[in-house]
Amino acid sequence: MAAVYLWINAVLYALLALWCTVLPTRTSQAIGFIELSSSGRSEYAVIYGGMQFGFAFLFAWAALSGNHRFGLIFSLAIYVPILLFRIVSVLRFWPVSATTLATGALEVLLTAAAIALWLRLDALD
Question: Where are the transmembrane segments (predicted)?
Fold first, then answer.
């Protein structure tokens, strides 16, 4: 079950990285960036393209190698802080777009699944 979760993350991050790399203006506007300068486009490509491809790689590696514990720790290491920052930022900057809320909802699901899978792995040890 952990491998399926890790593959879902790998695919989600690979697709998101591709989408953000191929259509940076469209995706950046969807999440609230009004306009990107040349430096902004470069930074957007690095973070929303490159780093997310890196995440996809790590999730896929953890799934393929059977290193599910690492994959779940990695998942919690990125999702818990993201979710905490998301909650604070949504409350602070309300109202926010539907895209922001949908992304947050997906992060809640992925965090909850990672916690459940982590607890299941610990129970098996």
Answer: 6-24, 45-64, 70-88, 100-119
Half-sphere exposure of 100 (CA within 13 A, CB side): 17
How many domains does the chain divide into? 1
Q: Which amino acid is at 42?
A: S
Distances (CA, A) of 59 to 65, 104, 112: 10, 20, 17
Tens digits of per-residue pLDDT, 60-89?
999 999 999 999 999 999 999 999 999 999
Mean model confidence pLDDT for the chain? 93
- Could you tell me the residue range of the domain that residue 49 belongs to? 2-124
C-alpha dihedral sign at 40, 42, 43, 44: positive
pTM: 0.90
Q: Count CB-CB contacts under 10 A for residue 72.
A: 23
Distance, in Å, from the CA atom of 88 to the CA atom of 95, rounded to the nearest integer, reads 13
Determine if residue 116 is left, alpha or beta; phi over 0 gives left, psi from -120 to 50 gives alpha, anything else beta.
Answer: alpha
